[in-house]
Amino acid sequence: MIEIKNIRKSFENREILKDISTVFEKGKTNLIIGQSGSGKTVLLKSIVRLLEVEEGEILFDGRDIRKMSFSVLKKLRQEMGMVFQGGALFDSMNVAENVRFPMDMFTKMTNGEKNMHVDFCLDRVNIKGAHHLFPSEISGGMRKRVAIARAIALNPKYLFCDEPNSGLDPVTSILIDNLIKEITVEFDITTLINTHDMNSVMEIGDNILFISEGEKGWEGNSTQVLFTRNKKLNEFVFASPLSKRIRELKQREDDE
Amino acid sequence: MRIFNEIGSYFLLMFRVFSKPEKGRIYWRQLLLEIEKLGIQSIGIVAIISVFMGGIITLQLTYNMSNPLMPTYLIGLGNRDTLILEFSCTVLSLMLAGKVGSNIASEIGSMQVTEQIDSLELMGVNSASFLILPKIIAVVFISPILFVLSVFCGIIGGLIAGPISGIVTVAQYMDGIKTMFVPFYVGFSIIKTLVFGFLIASVPAYWGYNVQGGALEVGHASTRAVVNTSILILFFDLILTQLLFK
Ligand SMILES: Nc1ncnc2c1ncn2[C@@H]1O[C@H](COP(=O)(O)OP(=O)(O)OP(=O)(O)O)[C@@H](O)[C@H]1O
Ligand SMILES: [Mg+2]
User: Fold this and answer.
1) Residues in B touching A89 (Cβ below 8 Å)
2) What ipTM score was computed for the predicted complex, to two decimals?
3) CATH fold of A1-79+159-172+185-227, please?
């Protein structure tokens, strides 16, 4: 469980996160949604302390990450996995080496065990026969999936995904959503996902936090999100012509 | 005022770089890779430049000192001491600051802007130490080797160019090379190359590590790294010469 209390973050006097508090539950997929530029990435990076917030508490199962010394923070980070918005694979390593890297760094596994686990992780994200390719030689969507494989390599307790399925086709996108959901439940981890994909919201939105211009706009789950009266959230959820049409039809039905 | 900020954060970064490595074996692997990339791959250019410079210095000496009163062994001696004292350590380091320095700054800089450094940090790896320490050790380790190579090639360059001029014979030139050899000069220059090697790796690493923005900023950082490293090399040359020759 990760609990954030009243966090604030600014860049050069421009306030990006304005007093956000919420709880991200364990064993659930916690979604952070909002428009581009609303502060989702900043929020995620602040939670893992890649960015320092000015105010507030960020509690990882009760332990405040802001008050940790460097060595304690390092230990905690070994329990985290993160998928960055751009993938952030290591350019100098091939796909297999990327996934293997955390094992090399932090485990005493033998080479054989590592190779097997690399295969297993890559298999889970549906990547086959790309072990020896370098990040510059694979597609954007594949990079994302390799990044996911790397993030789950050490069975993290906390998983952070910054738009894990942006740039993926609908089929792969659903596959990734389901994979994240699956491992979240299977290993009982606390998963935070940034997204603006409404399909993901409907598929795996156990908890949803809506951020609008750096403020907490709304909080709920995937069922509630359709029936909200929150104006900004409605604009976000029903942005596409198709969904607008469906809502109109539904409202007409309700009115009759 | 900004310069004090920069110096302060440079030392903070070095403090992180020189903390205990997480996993020795992986650092060792990185170190070998860096020695290959930054060192072995510089051997060719160092050799070529040194042969030419040795030749040019020798020609300058022969044409400008061709005076019947001047003993000819001074040409070989002059070339040797110029190479040892300044060319093969300072000038060569300036050149390496360009080649190796820009490579380090842009590599680390692009890792910073593509979140690869964040990614390392998030895994619990000390990214400063993991990325920078092997580079510093590699460059410091190979600098004296490149120095010796450069002196050697420079002397050969002179050996080729000197006799071509017709003023000095091979025997006279080699006489000069062997005359009045001062071992201290070599020790002095090796100390300098070690210091310069540290600068060549650490200063560009600092600029690369602190890049913010995108590809454009990586380019700026790389330029700034080379300029700063070059100035620092000359500055330390001045200080070390003053200190060690007193
Ligand atoms: N390092 C930084 N320095 C200054 N401003 C920043 C920095 N990083 C982010 N911002 C600003 O913070 C705001 C929120 O950015 P953020 O990346 O969190 O958006 P986002 O919700 O993740 O958007 P997207 O969905 O497009 O990824 C933006 O206005 C951006 O300009
Ligand atoms: Mg983002």
Assistant:
1) 116
2) 0.89
3) Rossmann fold (3.40.50)
